[in-house]
């Protein structure tokens, strides 16, 4: 029995590490950040408060919250020379390729002055990463569009500033719709952490060698890019476009059953029940579309019909396949006006706090050892070298 939750001995044998940050009950479809249910955080918190909670283990009081928000705002600019890295990319480079490169390049700006064994240095690294990733992501979009680089603005929330940096131009100031900004902030909260998923495990493994946090987070971004992980929300939009309309759902579902392709946004390594984030995302999707007068958005209606059919089809029920966080997030982002190419960068932007929280927890653990997974060797038995002129 550990904390609020009990584990069966079989599970304990498979656990890769211990952590106090996030708990998932895959059978019940429950998710907790530091013991707080995700439903309550999505409803009452904001992303920077969730960041404080994940990093520090407790909800902040008013002064702690104000100081944290100030520190993030203080670090959200990029060194002007970092903008030169963008110019080395083709204009049509995927923003995730740019994020891997530019976040990794932060090592060149901060690595030498960084002692990862110094708690203050770790804290500043966390602030720098949480503060700069929205700026880095937004500049990747602007470089892709041939727009001038933009800068964060004082007096805006984290989500409002991201939208401002994405869409304001020197001629037109982007007018933030508070309902859309709140929906984006909730998307950031829902994606902030998720226990030992592939990208977080990547960050932990990279960090266990003592590599600097900027290089470790770049490794996490690279892993998240895969369509089975963070790339799924982009894949859901492509899947809905390929299905086209409700009349084609039956043919598509048959293709899934014939194993020709997967139902993107469905299934999960841990959840064998509804992903609690999917339900919150579905509600958020409805709120955003209603605000924009798009309740009849064909993508949303198609997605809900697809979900209804899949949830009642024995093929999916027997395999415990339910919608995950990515099934509706793409529709929300698309309705907010964010292009598909920016969906996974937004996932990376949100998950940075989870990655840096796990990195900090691991580095601060005096018993930490370098990760060294073992394997079962199934290759050739011992054999002697054969000189080239004796080989067939
Ligand atoms: C994220 O780990 C995390 O926490 C990740 C994440 C996070 O916040 O970090 O939650 C974010 O990555 C969410 C997942 C996003 N990916 C997708 O939506 C892509 C589509 N999903 C699949 O690729 C798949 O469901 C996985 C990769 C997510 C999980 O794959 P598993 O572990 O193989 O799933 P499983 O063991 O439950 O599969 C059981 C059966 C298998 O079929 P059978 O061999 O029994 O016939 O279900 C099938 C699988 O082939 N299956 C699917 C399916 N997912 C599993 N069949 C059709 N469509 C799917 N999506």
Fold and architecture overview:
The chain is mainly α and 392 residues long. The chain is built from 18 helices and three strands. It has helices at residues 9-14, 38-44, 47-56, 62-74, 83-86, 95-110, 119-145, 158-167, 178-190, 198-207, 213-224, 232-243, 249-257, 276-291, 298-311, 314-318, 326-336, 343-363; strands spanning 22-25, 30-33, 36-37. Strand 2 and strand 3 (36-37) form a beta hairpin. The longest helix is centred in the middle third of the chain and has 27 residues, at 119-145. The chain starts with 8 loop residues before the first helix and ends in a 29-residue tail after the last helix. The chain binds s-citryldethia Coenzyme A (SDX). S-citryldethia Coenzyme A binds at residues 194, 197, 228-229, 232, 256, 262-270, 319, 321, 324-326.
Can you summarize this structure?
With 392 residues, the chain is mainly alpha-helical. It contains 18 helices and 3 strands. The protein has a 3-stranded antiparallel β-sheet.
């Amino acid at each position: 029995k550990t904390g609020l939750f009990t584990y069966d001995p079989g599970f304990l044998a498979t656990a890769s590490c211990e952590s106090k940050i996030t708990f998932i009950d895959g059978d019940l479809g429950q998710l907790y950040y530091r013991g707080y249910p995700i439903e309550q955080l999505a409803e009452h918190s904001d992303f920077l408060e969730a960041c404080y909670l994940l990093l520090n283990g407790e909800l902040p009081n008013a002064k702690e919250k104000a100081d944290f928000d100030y520190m993030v705002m203080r670090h959200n600019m990029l060194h002007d020379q970092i903008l030169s890295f963008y110019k080395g990319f083709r204009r049509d480079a995927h923003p995730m390729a740019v994020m891997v490169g530019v976040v990794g390049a932060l090592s060149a700006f901060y690595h030498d002055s960084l002692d990862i064994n110094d708690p203050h240095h770790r804290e500043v690294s966390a602030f720098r990463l949480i503060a700069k990733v929205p700026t880095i992501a937004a500049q990747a979009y602007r470089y892709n569009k041939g727009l001038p680089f933009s800068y964060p603005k004082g007096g805006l929330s984290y989500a409002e500033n991201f939208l401002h940096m994405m869409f304001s131009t020197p001629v037109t100031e982007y007018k933030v719709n508070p309902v859309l900004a709140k929906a984006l902030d909730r998307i950031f909260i829902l994606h902030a952490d998720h226990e030992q998923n592939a990208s977080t495990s990547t960050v932990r493994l990279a960090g266990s060698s003592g590599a600097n946090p900027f290089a470790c987070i770049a490794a996490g971004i690279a892993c998240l890019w895969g369509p089975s992980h963070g790339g799924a929300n982009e894949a859901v939009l492509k899947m809905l476009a390929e299905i086209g309309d409700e009349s084609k759902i039956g043919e598509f579902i048959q293709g899934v059953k014939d194993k020709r392709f997967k139902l993107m946004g469905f299934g999960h390594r841990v959840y064998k029940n509804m992903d609690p984030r999917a339900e919150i995302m579905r509600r958020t999707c409805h709120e955003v579309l209603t605000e924009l007068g798009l309740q009849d958005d064909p993508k949303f209606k198609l997605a809900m019909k697809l979900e209804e059919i899949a949830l009642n089809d024995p093929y999916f029920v027997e395999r415990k396949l339910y919608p995950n966080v990515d099934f509706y997030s793409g529709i929300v982002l698309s309705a907010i006006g964010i292009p598909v190419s920016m969906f996974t960068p937004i996932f990376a932007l949100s998950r940075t706090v989870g990655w840096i929280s796990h990195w900090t927890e691991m580095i601060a653990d005096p018993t930490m050892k370098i990760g060294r997974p073992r394997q079962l060797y199934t290759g050739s038995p011992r054999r002697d070298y054969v000189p080239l002129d004796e080989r067939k």
